[in-house]
Design goal:
By secondary structure, the protein is α/β, with parallel strands linked by helices. Among the domains are: 153 residues, Rossmann fold (3-Layer(aba) Sandwich), CATH 3.40.50.980; 104 residues, GMP Synthetase, Chain A, domain 3, CATH 3.30.300.30. The longest helix has 17 residues. The N and C termini lie far apart (52 Å).
């Protein structure tokens, strides 16, 4: 392993409880569940709307589902899709697919029928597990015949609810389900009810066999599937657990599963990591649920007392701005991690002031399973504004934007592109050889498309996305820098910055701002510009400010700048 600043300086000081290098067991990912179910069979794994499932129950149902897939005639390497929001069926289906030797295709439940059709055709999925709900099942039914899908399994929520809640919900019609189902489609629980658990396993190479295909826009914006192997996840889960502090005994940690599991952030750091750490997992299907929005999430935090809360900046912001947040006890939370999007410093300060829970920012990519860097959690180790240091066995370097073969030295003045090598880096994109050539540099490092620098102690900083950089009269403007200033304004609840065409400057800066409710109609465009002029060089100050009720967000809560850019392009044309 190459000599690196973080091994020499940061690790002895703030990570003295963790190993720098791990001897990972070369195992299929599903063995993590089997091992926990063997050692702690009666420990609670999932909690959903008051009903709990133990590790033994989840593992046994996964074995039965694996047998069902084999009975369908599915072979090693065949793809099986999961198309539903977080619910207790997710880990059962996920590990059942892997136990059958197949590959999971995680599908965004917000997809429209055409998007679903594209992903099923691109992945070649032969089967799909879909939630029995009017928002999901009809789309599968619509596109099924135009895809390779041969088997549709629908999952009804009633068996996953407490008996009384399921009974009353069914009688009152409060549990959404589809009445007009295709008779060829199969009910998940009926399918596995009388099955013998699958005990024989396909012989696989965990380092080469693909466990999951996760679709991402990557650095180019076109949908493509990242092929993540069993060992990508095994190493990433173990590496992430290694640097977590404080440590928890088996059965003591409680994870909040509010992030979507079709996304690598929620999947790895909640659904799978909780298994490795023998933790309870609070299953949240929709974090926005409740009146006002996010009320049900706050109730779940108070009721179940999560110790680990992984979220995105927009979710932290939404909770902070909840009108009744002071009524809820959030003191159980000990570890807060923010990822998937830059964490504004002002938001970090506000969260800590209101809750007492410290947030550390991390960094990852779909292509890296996803965790790459995390700030040390031990007191004194965090650097606000930094994404932290690489987790065990991960090498990150800064390379020249135009010449990735040239590594740049530490220093804020030496901004370049982050390049990564480690056991969590994907095998490549599914059926995209030309994309693989673009994303892997000449020395095999993954080129992230993210711009940043490393300081003298080995901490990394992200300044922006390579493709989002604004060129204003030859000056480089990184949107995140402007957004950080906007978040410091007392009236700003959310903000995004993009470059728009300008006849004189080539590009200029435009800000989209969501005001806090109490400031609506009281803050003007000029107020925002004046505030920015006090904190930014003239060429970085937004020339245009547009107020909005909300910003376009991805399912995981990341602001979609590309959507804003496309809207501006249409206006211009």
């Amino acid at each position: 392993m190459p000599k690196t600043p973080w091994l020499e300086k940061v690790w002895p000081k703030y990570l003295d409880f963790a190993r720098q290098k791990i001897d990972y067991p070369v195992i299929p990912l599903y063995e993590m569940l089997e091992e926990t179910a063997r050692k702690y069979p009666d420990y609670t794994y999932t909690i959903f709307m008051g009903k709990s499932l133990t590790y033994r129950e989840v593992n046994e149902m996964a074995d039965k589902f694996a047998r069902s897939l084999k009975d369908f005639g599915l072979k090693k390497g065949d793809r099986v899709a999961i198309y539903m929001p977080n619910n207790p069926y997710w880990p059962i289906a996920f590990f059942g697919i892997l136990k059958a030797g197949c590959t999971v295709v995680a599908t965004n439940p917000l997809y429209t029928a055409p998007e679903l059709k594209f992903q099923m055709n691109d992945s070649g999925a032969r089967a799909i597990v879909v939630l029995d709900h009017p928002s999901f099942y009809p789309k599968v039914k619509e596109v099924e015949k135009e895809t390779p899908l041969e088997h549709v399994i629908y999952a009804n929520l009633k068996p996953m609810l407490p008996k009384m809640k399921a009974l009353l919900g069914g009688l009152l019609g409060k549990i959404p389900e589809v009445k007009d189902k295709d008779p060829k489609h199969l009910d998940f629980m009926e399918l596995i009810k009388d099955k013998e658990p699958l005990k024989e396993r396909e012989q696989i190479n965990p380092k080469e066999e693909v466990a999951l295909i996760l679709y991402t826009g990557g650095t180019t914006g076109t949908p493509k599937g990242a092929m993540l192997t069993h060992m990508n996840f095994v190493s990433n889960v173990m590496g992430t657990a290694e640097i977590m502090w404080p440590k928890f005994e088996p059965g003591k940690a409680v994870f909040m599963g509010a992030l979507p599991w079709f996304h690598s952030y929620g999947l790895t750091t909640a659904m799978i990591l909780s298994i490795f750490m023998v933790a309870k997992l609070i299953v949240i299907a929709d974090p926005r649920a409740g009146d006002p929005p996010f009320t049900d999430l706050l109730k779940a935090i108070q009721k179940y007392g999560p110790t680990h809360f992984n979220a995105v900046p927009t979710l932290y912001g939404a909770l902070l701005n909840h009108p009744d947040i002071e009524k809820y006890d959030l003191s159980s939370i000990k570890i807060c991690v923010s990822g998937a999007a830059p964490l504004p410093l002002e938001l970090m300060k506000q969260w800590e002031a209101k809750t007492g829970a410290v947030i550390v920012e991390g960094y990852g990519l779909t292509e890296t399973s996803p965790v790459v860097c995390v700030n040390p959690m031990k007191p004194g180790g965090r650097k606000p504004g930094s994404i932290g240091v690489p987790i065990p066995d991960t090498i990150v370097k800064i390379v020249d934007i135009d010449d990735p073969s040239k590594e740049l030295p530490p220093g804020k003045e030496n901004e370049g592109e982050l390049a990564i090598r480690g056991p969590q880096v994907m095998k490549g994109y599914w059926n995209r050889p030309e994309e693989n050539e673009k994303i892997f540099g000449p020395d095999g490092y993954l080129l992230t498309g993210d711009i940043g620098y490393i300081d003298e102690e080995g901490y990394f900083y992200i300044t922006d996305r390579k493709k989002d950089m604004i060129n204003a009269s030859g000056y480089k403007v990184f949107p995140r820098e402007v957004e950080e200033v906007l978040f410091q304004h007392e009236a700003v609840m959310n903000a995004a910055v993009i470059g728009v065409p300008d006849p004189k400057r080539g590009e200029t800066v435009k800000a989209f701002v969501v005001l806090k409710p109490e400031y609506k109609g009281k803050v003007t465009e000029e107020d925002i510009k004046k505030f920015c002029r006090e904190h930014l060089a003239a060429y970085k100050v937004p020339q245009f400010v547009e107020f909005r009720e909300e910003l376009p967000l991805s399912a995981v809560g990341k602001v979609l700048r590309r959507v804003l850019k496309e809207e501006e392009r249409k206006k211009t044309s």
